[in-house]
Structure formats: C-alpha cells, structure tokens
Amino acid sequence: MGRIRSLEKKGLWVMLPLVVLAIAATGCAKVATTKGWAQPEVVNKVMYVTLDKGKLTAVDPVKGFTKIWTFPAADDVSCGGGAAQKYTLEGIYGQPAVDAANVYYSTYDGAVWSVKQSDATCNWRVEMDGNLVAAPVLKGDALYVTSTDGYVYELDAKDGSQKSKFNTGEAWATPLLTDDGLYVATMKGELWKLDPTDLHNLWPAPFKVSAALLTPPAIVGDNTVVVGGIGRKLYGVNTDSGQQSWVADGSNWFWGEPAVEGTTLYTTDLDGQVKAIDGTNGKSLWATDFQALESIRAGAVVVGDMVIAVDNSGEIYRIDKATGTQIGQPNLLNEDVLTRPLVYDLTTGRTPAPTNIGARVVTPTPVSGGAAAQALATGTTTGSPTVAASAAPSGSAGGDLVYIVTQGGNVYEFDADAAQTKQVLTK
Amino acid sequence: MTTVAQPAARRGLPITGLIFFAILSTIIIMIVAGRNPWNEVFINPLINVLLMINIITFGQFGLTIILFTLLLRVATLPFTIRQLQSTKAMQSIQPRMAEMQKKYKDPKRRQEEMMKLYKEAGINPLGCFGPMLIQIVVFMGLYRALVYTVGGSPESLVGLSHRLYPLGLLQNQIPLNQHFLWLSLGHPDPTFLVPLLVGASTYTQQRLSITPGASAQQQQQQQMMTWMLPLMLMFFTLNLPSGVGVYWVVTNIFSLFASYWVYGRRILSWKQLLPIPIDAPAPAARPKSQDDDDMKSEEVDDQPDDDGSNGSGGSGEARSQYGKRRGKRKKRR
C-alpha cells in the first residue's frame, strides 16, 4: 500500500536525489579553486607573500609583519598608465621574482605582472596562452616564463614584451637558471637544457622519461641536475651530456622542490616520505626514510642540523639531518599547507642557503648566503636575482626562522630550535 | 512431479540481498579502517577506469568520457530497457487507470485497484528510479573524478596522486589532455552550448517518458519535472566541468536511441516534444456492461465485506487476475 502511495509522490522521489546532487555539486565546487601555493620571497627586508587568491602582499617582517601594500588593492587595475580593467584573479603558484625596483609574479590564468616595490603600481601585465604554475625566473632584464601552452618565453622585464620563445612542451615546474643554462622540466617527461640568451637547445636531445616531471630541477654537486615527478622516481642527469646518471625510487609522486646541501639532496613525496639522497649516485643516506603522517606537496628546507618538512595537513616535522629520525613531536598548524616554507633570519634579513634549491640563479662566485642575500643584508641591490649560490654554505645561523604560509592565507613563524609556532600574519 | 518455476523477482532476491550485504559489509569495514567508502569503492575505481579508457582513445579525454558513457549505458541496458518497457506498459494501462480514477473515490481502494493493475501489467511503479539513480550517482562521481583528473587546478592534481593505482600505464596518462572540441573539460563551457544541449536533451528525454492520460495530479507532477529537471541540470552544468555535461548529453542521446528501440516511431512525433499536455490514447471501446454498473455500485457501497475484505472482495489470486475475476463474475451471473 505504501508503495502505491509513494507513486503518488513520485515527484518528491525524483526531487530527492536531485537535491542531494545539488548539495554535492555546490559543496564540492571548492575543490576546483586555484588558491595557489607561492613560496614567499624576502628582499630588502620586505616579504612578498600571497595571502589571498591572486593577490600579492608586501609586509615588513621586522616591524611586526605590518602590511605595506596588497596588489591589486581594488577590482579594477590599471597597468602602465592604461585604462583600468577588471581581472578575474587566479592563484599564484610561483615565488615572486624581485629586482632592484620591481616584483614580478605570474598567476594561474596566464598573466605575468610587474609591480613597483615602492607603491605597488602596476608597470605592465602580459598574458600567455596557457596557465602559469611555474615561477618566473629573472636574470638582468630577461624574465623567463614557462607555460602550460608548451612554450618557454623570454620576456623583457622592462615592458613585458616577448624576446624569444621555445617549444618544450607543457611545463609546471619552475625552471632552473644557472650560468650553464636554463633547465626546463616538462609534463611530457622531458628535461631540456636551453641557452638562456636565445633559448636554443644545448643538449642533442632532451632527457626523456615516461611520466610527467613536476619538481623544479636542482643542481647537485658539479654536474648533476636532479628532477622527479609522477613516475615516482627521481633522476640524476649529467648537466653536460643530458644522459641519466642515476635513478632513485620514491613511494609516490615527487613534487616539492628538493633541498640541496653540498651533494646531499633532501626530497619529499606525496606519500609523505622524506629522503636524504646522495646526489652523486642516487643512494639513500638514511637507514630508514622519514615518514610523515600525510602527503607532502611542499619541499623541505634545511635549518641548521635539521630538515624541516611540513605535510599537507600542516604538521611540522623536525628531522635529524644526519640520521633521518624525528626530533621531538610534530607541531600542528591545523591548516592545510602546500607551500614550501621560507627560511629567514629576521635580525640580519638573510635568507640562508640552501634556498638555491630549485634555485632561480646560481651566481658564478658564491658568497655566504648568496649574492642577492648579501645585497639584502647590506641593503644594496644588484638588479640581479634573488637567490643564493648552489655551493653556498648551509644557513644554520641561530636566528633562522621558518615561515610557513597556509592555504587559508595565514603565515606562521616556526622556531625550529624551540619547536614553537607563532602566527604572525592573517589574511 | 513437476518443477514449478520460481518467479524471476523471487529468484533474484537472494542475489540482490547478497550484493546488498556485500556492499554494506565493505562500507562498514572501510569506515572502521578509516577509509572513505565513497572514494574507495566508487570514485577511485572510476578515475582509474577513465584513465584505462584514455589509453584506448590515445589520450583524447573527451572521447574517453564518451566511450565510458556508452560502455556504462550498454552495461546498464537491461535496466534501461526494463524502465522503458515499464513506462510503455504504464501508458498502455492509462485508459483503465483513468477509469479507476473516476470510479473509485476512496483513495485506499483506488490504490489497491491500481496496484492490481500494475501487477497484472507487470509494472514496478518504482522501477524507473533504478536507472535514474545509477545515472545520478555516476553524474556525481564523474564530477568528482573530473575535478581530480582535469580539474583545472594544480590543487586537484595533488589529490589525484593517492587515487591512481600504482601502474605505470596509468601514471603516464597524467596530465590528461583536457581539450576536446571547443571545450576545456575541467572547466565550465564558456559558450554555454553544453548546458543548452544538456537542457534540450534532458527535456526531450523527459517529454518522451511522460505517461499520457495520467491523473491531473500526476500530469502536474510530470509537467513540473519536464521543466524542472532540464533547468536544474542546465544550471548545474553552467558551473560544473564541461566534461560532466558531455557525459549527460551522451547519456541522453543513448536514452533516446533506447526509447526509439522500445517505442518505435512514436519517438519521431514532434507533437510529443511540444510543451503541451499529452492526450491519453483513446480507451478501447467497450460496450457498457452490467459489470460496469456493478463496479459503480461497488464504489458506492465501498464497505468491507463480512469476511473483512473490502468491496472488491476476493482472494489475492483473484486480485491479481483482474480480467479473469470479471469473467468469473459474469459466469456466476
């Protein structure tokens, strides 16, 4: 009898799954948002950090992390004195590049922005065909941008005009610029070494594997460039020949930038494993790999004798650099973290090495903390890039603090020695 | 000694029960183990199946969605055919149902008689919800799968790493080519063509499944659903990955072909698609008989008989044998 009655209410029965569908559809829509995971950058004691989707904020870390400006401040943006336009802001995934006067960053929708450090005036904005996940890489007036449209572009940092381009295939990983060449890892599983002056191929053929490469390339030792990705493998490639030197297995995808110190490589993967790998032969240096509770998208950093890794759910782990064992209990942020932490010394304004990891530029004559870092410390800028040398000594100064940006747009300061966290900035 | 064949429904019951028990046990075990059963049982296999099909389609993910939809619809074809036949049978008994609506004013009695009629015609009134439920569950699952596979954000790819089975062939499919025709499958269609196609194909499908000559209330509900469902799906597709819209359009087109197979040329009637009430087929001409008068008097005296049954009287067997019962009555007279 009830069955027949329910037929009378057929409409309601049909509506029920639709309502469920509506709730599911709207409730899950946030999964597809592009929040971004840009690592902060510090230059001239000013930190450039992304707290809100598609927006860049400059803060003064010395004066209690006070906000200096946020760009764009309004919905309508005028660039280069042109008419104001409204843009749909997408997430920022790459660390901003900073020179003497400007900040350059890219957004997922394919836009590259140049903003004045002093007052956040927009110098120019150019749009690429694809999406931009990789950070822009700066050297002098040349700004290198890799896009999902398959091209590496060389832009003029002065006005954003295109100087040259080269088709490598879709790239998500931030390229590595050294004096030797521009290394580009692609989603087609290829690693290219290009001449940065005119973007021509320096190897006879790109290094090729079957699965996509996600990690920014990193230089280890004298002549090895390391990349990894979806194939759950990490590859050491000879920088001269482009031939494979070694391969190391992981338990899941490698995505985070590896931390490099001398010839040792500290890697993270999406199964939450942290490994110490000998960059000369790919052998594991720890008896047992460190296992986090959750996946780790963000790369690890080295602070003194510790490797600091933050998993996707916001657990901060301190790992003994020599043995791979956990030091103390993890600190929990209770927020998702996909962004690589930044190591910074508040007192000196120094971003210690090895920030070269996935380094944007390797200077020919490394100095302590890197050329740019030294410039930061002295308050002078060279107009060249932000990052330290590959061979620079590890930053193990006692004043080093780790800054972690969460997906919720908050910034935490982590004192690795005391194992204490403090929220220093909110969205 | 003769072997009496069990009714199909009875034969299927233990198997259905076993399947239900197995699913329920799996879900409970997964919850206890701290795993998400929705992901483990449905979403993750769905993602991996899509990637396997993607190998066949040479990395054309749009074709993968189409092929997946067709395979799914072929696999669930028996349910679809049963649903369509049920709808067809429903249409064929509408004249008699209309008669009942008039004759039996007491809802309880009317429902009893309708149930008898359904049994006689072999109709399961709730049978149409099976295929619909499958479609909606796949729709939701595909949405989640597309968010992870061609979700259009690097964040979604982070989540995918734990969902892929550790097979090189599957891993090598990433990233998926999300471009198909003018669409970026992980993003809503900016031209709104896919939502329009979803709306139009769903409307057509709904119109074809309308039961002519239903009661006023049913007609009203059917009319509401004819508009409501396409509009809702259109609205969802505006914001969902266009790949989900592709699935829905293909599944509707498949349904139209299935309808053509079951209904024949009726599907080609343009009148059927116009937003006007669909007339009931004329009831078969039947001479006014004493039986009709009898039924009327039954309705008037719709009181329980001495044996506790209501005015229609008779055993369960008699109830299920509507036509035979009438024949017997005539014979008695």
Notes on the structure:
The complex is a heterodimer of chains A (427) and B (333). Chain A is mainly β and 427 residues long. Chain A is built from 3 helices and 34 strands. In chain A, a hairpin with a 4-residue loop joins strand 33 (411-415) and strand 34. Residues 1-8, 26-31 and 354-397 of chain A have low confidence and may be disordered. Chain B is an all-alpha fold. In chain B, 67% of the residues lie in helices and 1% in strands. Chain B has helices at 8-32, 37-56, 61-75, 77-92, 94-103, 107-121, 129-149, 154-160, 168-171, 193-208, 216-239, 242-263, 290-300, 316-320, 322-332; strands at 179-180, 183-184. The radius of gyration of chain B is 25 Å and the shape is globular. At the A-B interface, helix 1 and helix 2 of A face helix 6, helix 7, helix 8 and helix 11 of B.
Total beta strands of chain A: 34
What overall form of chain A do the CA principal axes indicate? globular
Q: What distance separates the N and C termini of chain A?
A: 58 Å
> What's the main sheet of chain B like?
2 strands, antiparallel
Q: How much β-strand is present in the residues of chain A?
A: 25-35%
| Mean pLDDT level of chain A | 84
Helix fraction of chain A by DSSP (H/I, runs of at least 4): under 10%
- From the alpha carbons, calculate the radius of gyration of chain A and give it in angstroms: 22 Å
Assembly annotation: heterodimer
Query: Largest interface, counted with CB-CB under 8 A?
Result: A-B, 49 and 46 residues
Structural descriptors:
heterodimer; A: 427 residues; mainly beta; four-stranded antiparallel sheet; 3 helices; globular; disordered N terminus; B: 333 residues; mainly alpha; two-stranded antiparallel sheet; 67% helix; disordered C terminus
